[in-house]
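Input record (one chain):
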Amino acid sequence: MTDYKATLNLPDTAFPMKAGLPQREPQILQRWDSIGLYQKLREIGKDRPKFVLHDGPPYANGKIHIGHALNKILKDMIVRSKTLAGFDAPYVPGWDCHGLPIEHKVEVTHGKHLSADRTRELCREYAAEQIEGQKTEFIRLGVLGDWDNPYKTMNFANEAGEIRALAEMVKQGFVFKGLKPVNWCFDCGSALAEAEVEYADKKSQTIDVAFPVADQAKLAAAFGLPSLAKPAAIVIWTTTAWTIPANQALNIHPEFKYALVDTGERLLVLAEELVEACLERWNLEGSVIATAQGSALELINFRHPFYDRLSPVYLADYVELGAGTGVVHSAPAYGEDDFVTCKRYGMVNDDILTPVQSNGVYVESLEFFGGQFIWKANPAIVEKLSEVGALMHTETISHSYMHCWRHKTPLIYRATAQWFVGMDKQPSTGEPLRERALKAIEETRFVPAWGQARLHSMIANRPDWCISRQRNWGVPIPFFLHKQTGELHPRTVELMDEVATRVEQQGIEAWFKLDAAELLGAEADQYDKISDTLDVWFDSGTTHWHVLRGSHDIGHATGPRADLYLEGSDQHRGWFHSSLLTGCAIDNHAPYRELLTHGFTVDENGRKMSKSLGNTIEPEKVNNTLGADILRLWVSATDYSGEMAVSEQILQ
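The corresponding structure, as predicted from the sequence alone:
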């Protein structure tokens, strides 16, 4: 039989018939490493125009997931394409190293009995270990970068740089101490950033509570009556019975109409629009005998249901008619709107009642409920209201409520003395921060374009930024406060620079071990050295300062302004957000020229990925079975602007 194969003139090639990616990719990576490919590219491009993609630091905890892989591959493709287009495009990977998750992991592993110094030591060791594991996985994805010299927020130079960034903001007048309600987690024992809050359903006991009138003549006059024929009360509705012991005022809307309703035994004040619904809920019959504009009821005093103190009526635009009675009970220590309204009416910090401690337990001195955990005290408070004849109605509802993203437990607003970056505070020069940030958003290019409106809305409506935390593993806020006046030391900025110099040599431990006399001399006895640490979003949010012009100095000659920040859409309220605020405070512009946002990964049915559903994709498994190039092919072939579907079937 004729062998036709021998008659064909076929090309001869060493190129393998099968890709064999799981076996060949590690060999390729090893070759890149042996020839120093990243450094060669830096040498080749040293005279080229710069393109800087600044890496948003992943958190140094746990194995990487498919979202990490997606993010790093997108960045790698952009950096490589810019390099091929004739730019010098360095890529310095980074890690976020401080914060509660690492401290919590150390506590779970070693117990809560550890000293603060030992906790910090173990946290540093744990973060370093996690970084090495994640680094190996990122390199395996084929991501080319300065892996021998990444930035880490726990590097001494970066910790010192962060303190210097804070000093710049103090110098310009953005930082202040204030008593304000902040998101508080009892399990963390600390204030939380907005980005650390998530919402989940919670069952709560609602209560309708009557506050008896104290100024009878004023209430009668407000409704155009010569006098009140019987006892009268105003009724509030709330889902937080535990705040009733801290009630200090009542809020009504100045433009709503309020009715005086005769229910037989007494007169009740509530919004006219809600009279019918309320009477039905309370199983009462009644008739409206007079109405008044909300503004006419301003400053009329009512009495607390079971404490001997007054609750005056304050006008507030945030009162709504969707549910309840049209009257809101105000506990300024435990509500943002309540706090602002009470301060507007002249209440000073010392007047604000704060009976809930950091662990969620009422102070022992609180009459009736001292020593009780607030969630467990709810039934006792309801019982007390019933006992004094103030409870109109109660029921249990399920509603969306804020929870700690870490512990999955309910949060409260809690007024504590914290350090804030003021959004509308007038700095020493230039415009307030909110104004600067909104202007910077207009000057930034967004991909996709909808990101601009989203970030604009967040900045336009956000409160002051609480930057202090009560933890061990974090960059310190190195302030000295006068023991009598509570004021910052007059040389605060200068002292912060001295602290930063020490931190640069010894890490954050230098501050915690510092004897105040070393810096203040004879003045030391007059000042308290505070132990608060910075919000971790301040760590990553200042990397434009302590990385781009600090530890790695890869910014443009015109300053530390990256060409591109690229992260998931959740970072509009995270890294994009904190970087914008610190950049505008320090440099009066955003630290980026362009923001690119990618969506989240879902399975082939559009479901969110979770271990409980069993639909997660592990990058390591894909690398070992199909090869990293298959993941890269999926990333390049998928529209990143929305949700990105991935599954084993899709990859196959």
